[in-house]
Structures are given as C-alpha cells and as structure tokens.
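Q: What does the assembled structure look like for these inputs?
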Amino acid sequence: MGLCRLDEPGTILEILQIRASDEPDGLLYSFLASPHTTTTLTYGQLLKKVKTFAGMLQERSGQHERAILVYPPGLDFIVALFGCMAAGLVPIPVYPRFGTRLERSLERIQHVATDADCRLILTTEQLLPEIGPNPSVNSLRFTCLATNDLSEAAGWDADLCLPEPESLAYLQYTSGSTKLPRGVKITHRNAVTNSAALCDCYSLDRESRFVVWIPPYHDMGLIIGIFLPLVAGFPVTLMAPYTFVQNPAIWLETMSQTHATGTVSPNFGYELCVRKMSDEAVARLDLSQWRVAMNGAEPVSPATMERFAGKFSPAGFRKSVFCPSYGLAEATLLVAASVGTEPQVRAFDRSLLESGCVQVCAENQDNARLLVGHGKPGPSIGLRIVNPATREACPDGQVGEIWVSGSGVAQGYQNKHELSRQIFQAYLADTGEGPFLRTGDLGFVLDGQLYIAGRIKDLIIVAGRKHFPEDLEQCVRESHPAFRGMPGAVFSVELEGQEEVVVLQKINRRLTAGVREEDLFRAVQRALSQDNIKADAIVLVKAGTIPRTTSGKVQRHQCRRDFLARKVKGWAQWMSPRFMRAVQKSPQVNRVLRMSQSG
Amino acid sequence: MSGDIVEKIPETVTSASIRSALMEWLVVHVASALEMSEEAIDAGRNLEDYGLDSMQAVGLTGDLQSWLGVEIPPTAIWDHATIESTCEFLIQLMPAYRSATNGAASGRAETKRRA
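A:
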C-alpha cells in the first residue's frame, strides 16, 4: 500500500498540494449532473480553484472563523469545502433543500448556526436569492455569499493556509435532529488517518476507481466520496442521491462504464437495485472489476446481500465483494469492516441475545436472529466490548457496548462539553485503560468478527440518519392539540431486518370530540416527515400505558416490550400494510404480536 | 430518453383524457408505494399525510420517466405535494416535450388535440 501512503501528510490540503504538483492533469472528481452531463476536476484544477476560492474568502468573509456550506451535491461543494480550509475557516456542510421546500433546510441551518456560533453562509448563486432575504436567516444576522461564479474571478489567489494537523478540519452534523443537532469535531489528523485506514483496510490503491451517490453532507459520503479518493489517489465519479433514487440503474451502469472497483451504500441502496432493475438492464452490465461493496450506516441484511448477489452474478458480481462495514461520525468514519471474503452470516438465539448472551443456534430455529459479521477493526483502531453499567470489559460470548479508540476518534461535540466528556473520554473501570469513544451500539466479537446486536441509546436510524426519540416525541406532541402535554414514545422495532418506527401517543379525550382518528394519524405522519421519517405503526393510547421512571422519563424499552407483547391499550391504532405483512410473515413476532388494523 | 408523452396515451387525445390517464397512473403507483388501496388515496391531499417520504417521491418520478419515456425532474412529485397538482405540472410540461420532439408525431398530436 506504499503508493497511497504519503510521507506523514498532516492535512488533506498538503496531500492536494503534493498530488497537484506531481500530476496536475490526473483526474480526481467527476460529477454526473445528469445521465448525459459530467463535469470533472483534475488535481491541478482543484488546487487552482481552491486557491482562488480561499483568496476570495480572505478578502470578503471578514472575521468569520466558521462557514456553513449550503450547496447541492457537486463540484462547487468540494471547492467550497477545501477552499474554506485553505482560507483558515472551518467548513460546516449541511443538507441543502430538496426541491422548493427550503423552509426545512433553513430551520436546520438556524439551529446549526446557533450551535456552532457561525454567522457566515456560503452558497450558490441559485440558492442565494432564497436564503439571503429570508426573515429567519436575517434574524440571526448572517453574512451570505454566493461563491460559484466568484471562484472564477481573476485576481484572487491565496497562498494556502496550511493548518496544523491537530486543528479542526470541519464540523460534521450527521447525528441529532433538526432541533438538537450534534456537530462532531473532526481534525485534519482524524480525516487523514481515517482515510488512510480505509485505504489499508479495503486494500485500495491508485488503480482503484469509485462511484459514490451518498450525499457529501453525510460522514460516509464526505469521507468515501471526497477525502478517500484524494488521499489514496484514485478517481471517483460522484452523483446526487436523488439521481440514484430516481433511477437506481444509473449507479451500477456508471460502475460498469467506468470499470469501477468500489462503491459504498447503506443496505437500502442495494435493495433498491434488486427491486428496480430489469434482467435486461442487468445483462448490459459488466461488474467483473468490482472488488469492494461497502455496506454500512444502517443494519446490513443477509437477505439483501443474497438477493443482490443472485441478481447481479450474471454481470460478474461476486458475493465476496460485499464488505459489511461499521463506523460512525464520532470515529470520523471507519471502525471495522469485513473485507475480501464472503460475509459471515450466523444465527443467534434472539432471546438470549437480548439478555446479553451470545449463543449460536440453527438458522431455522424459531427465534433465530441472523447477524452479519463486520470483520476486524481497521488498522490502528482499538475496540473493546464493555459492560455499559459496570464499565468493565465483557468476557467473550457476551454482548456489550462497543468502545473505540485510535486516531480516528473525534475531539467531541461542538459546544457540548459535558456530553463530549461522557462519550469521548470513557475509561475502563477495572484497568483504567482509555480514553475510549462510547458508540452507544451493542455488539460482540465471535471468532474475530464484530457483530452489531443493537443499541443502548434508543436512537432511531432511518436511511442512515440518526434521530433521537426525544426530539421525534416532541414533534409528535406538537402536531395536534389533542397530543399537547400528553406523554408519548417513539421507538423502533426490527422486522425482517428492517427498522420500523412505532409511535405511542396519549391523547386528551376532551379535545378529540368530532376529530377523526385518521386526522390524528396524519398529524403524526406530517410531524415525523419533517425529519424524513414515517411511522409504520401508530397507537393512540389510554392513560397509564406509557411507562415512565419516577423522574418522569419515558421508558422506551418497556414501551417496546409492551407493544410487542400486545400489552399496549389503545383507543385507536394504525399500521402500514407493509408492517402488517411483515408481522404476519415473521413467525417469531407473530406469536407475540397479532394486532388487527383499526377500522 | 425520447418519445412524446401523448404517444403513450392511446385514446383520443384530449387534455381531459391525458389528465385522467396521468391521474390514474399516479393514484395506482402512489397507492402501491404506500401499500394502500387506491380508493383510500385522495388526489387532493398532501402526500406527506400518507407518509410518503422524499425518497419514495423521487422513486416515483423515475417510474414516471420509464412509463412516459421523457425526463421528469426528480422533485416533480415532492414539490407539488398532491396528486392533482403533480398532474397539472406534468400537463404543463407537455408542450415543452412536444416542441422538443419537433417531428411528425408531435404535429399529429397537436392536430388531434385541437380536434
């Protein structure tokens, strides 16, 4: 792997400088704007644009230290990202709007800006007229600059500001909800060493070639799509997530056309290709060059991998290409991955697993839970399975919280000192070893493979984004007068390997006279859709149904158990047909969960 | 992508029948994406109320593209929120498609439309 390791590069900008001087015409980024339009950047072009951008920023951005980046996916975003770093500003990528519904994006921008104490927004000429004059933006006294055409302007050319490796490279707001965002502080060293670890772990080199549709505002899209290709020195073709979702075939067609060797997607991306692509479309593909199919950010489904491998084997796809991968923004990205062999799928006794005990069982056993091995920790990444209550390392064969150490572990959350100390500075109680990052994920190691069993926190992960149930519960509570001030619980249950969202909400019966149940259900859906979530089951519950601690905290684990055991007493309930079907098909759940759809 | 939206609708081509064909397609496919019955879908209702997310909305524009053989913006359904207004938007798009094809087929469609 000598080729992709530069001698002690401290920052991503140094790597860009070295590559641009070694091979200015080497192709780095291609962006597929439409099936017929590709724009590209070589190392040399990128460095030139970054310098111009940085010069513009130094002249026009005043005293700002951080900048929120509001860009659609594309090369302008990449130039802005590196341009900020080169001008000595910390970039904060956020999801731009999708379509014309800018208001949601603006709400998130406001919360991020407040959390990060940032008052500079960089965006495109197209978005500026909508963002700049917006009253909610104005109220925070933002400076808004459009940059795409400015970066072409002559006269600006900065010397790169080469930051220290230990300085902050960017803030990653992937977790948390709109109202309570959490910005992970990533240093240049974090970004470079985790990219180098990815390179080693997946055996990537200068001959590699990737296609990535994950949005660059997500840790996975940013690291795999943007940093990794630069650090490893291979070309990547990027596209917007909606380009892929509209026509999933375009992902694999682009891989086929560019002879790509690797890509990354959450499980649903692979599933979408299985569902949407015709056999004729598969027959036109050549996927024989494909070596690395990272699958991460949401639970990896053995059934999806099976179906995908079956469907695309005529095009030369092999199942051993699948790399179930585990990572999180708090560790920059990579923690562990299974590489180079067919993923290990093993069956475990579900009820024993829930009580923390690892017991392999037969796949056809009634309560078998199939889990996929996520391989070994990446190079220079440490991993411990820890009893979260005692903070002592778990003996083999026990489920515990996954604790991580190594140079990828971030510096904490922006503006959250106590929380950062708890999560990023954990020490083993018995040996004092540390510090470790507490991931909040439950897992175990068996025969050298890491398995992910669940989560301690009641986090809900939908399409790779993490949501805190407290926030979702608050959204639901505010969505209808009959819910206001009433307790509720939002949690997820796993059915057929898919995470399904369940909402229990107490209603104020004095305010529901003449209100149709349907309208209450819709109020819930509308509230959740602000965070791009939909409920698969909603129960409007009776008093005393939502268990709480003596201090009034909702006990979601108990709610989930009650729900699965059909102990929840409701006035009305609704389930999506998909949920109903999954329930009927799943014998294990069916035994305990036979609920009828409400009329 | 090639073709004319009108070509896909074999009945006597009037704007009313185009509208009803598009409406029917949207109701059937939205219902299928949501796994609901077609009767339960109200074309004037915000699709988010039924739990349609942006990803499903984008996915449906892809299916629309394959059906109509013309490019549809990925935001088409998400931005227009209801089946009715999506349908109006698609009809608005049609003259653009017709002039873009600029051939015998589009001339024929135009004539039929006036008839």
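Chain A touches chain B at residues 98-101, 242-243, 245-248, 272, 276, 463, 522, 525-526, 529, 532-535, 576-578, 581 (CB under 8 Å).
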